[in-house]
Amino acid sequence: MFIFLAWSCSPSEQELFEEGVRLLESSEYQKSIEYFDRAIEKNPGFTSALNAKGVALFQQAKFDEAIVAFTRSIEIEPESYKPYFNRGNAYLEKKAFKEALLDYNMANGLDPQQIDIYYNRGLALLGLEEYEDAIFDFDVVLQANPNHALAQFNKAKSQLGNNDPVGAVESLFNTVNLDNRNGAAYYLLGVTQMSAFGQKQDGCANLKMALGLGFSEAKTWIDDFCAE
What we know:
By secondary structure, the protein is mainly alpha-helical. It contains 14 helices and no strands. Helix content is 78%, strand content 0%. It is elongated, with a radius of gyration of 23 Å. This is Tetratricopeptide repeat protein.
């Protein structure tokens, strides 16, 4: 009798949420959304479920729907950095860099210790061609983790945009030393060595590395400038 009664009770909003999180972590995104929706139906103010639903939608590249879920979470609990950060990520994927920057600024104001915010805000600033500010954010990331290869790479791109080829080459060397599979970094390194410093031999070697790693854009430079 007691077992029957226990199973006949409907699950609580927390139980539904926890099952949704389990499915989300197992990459069963659509199923997880069903559980988050049931939790939200029980408690429309359940901000963690709204935020998690947004993450599941984001993982399915349903960025507009994700933004709706994150916005609802923000409206209910505006003091949490997470939905601002997550909504910023959705805007970043849509290349809505201004909107992403606003959200990252809000997230950073709520929790300035979150290094991921600086990295993603740097990407938004790079997209907006605000290179000096982007370099500042990537430097914050690198101070916390000098082995962050993508921060080195995107710092290099910002330095190139900021007309600093010397700094960019240093950052690109750091990038390929940390990640020798980054064909785009070898490509930028080769192009910069050749165009800014006239270093044909080194530049061609790096362009050939880029091509060998599948970065096909290098082929034009190799054909034009690296013929034997």
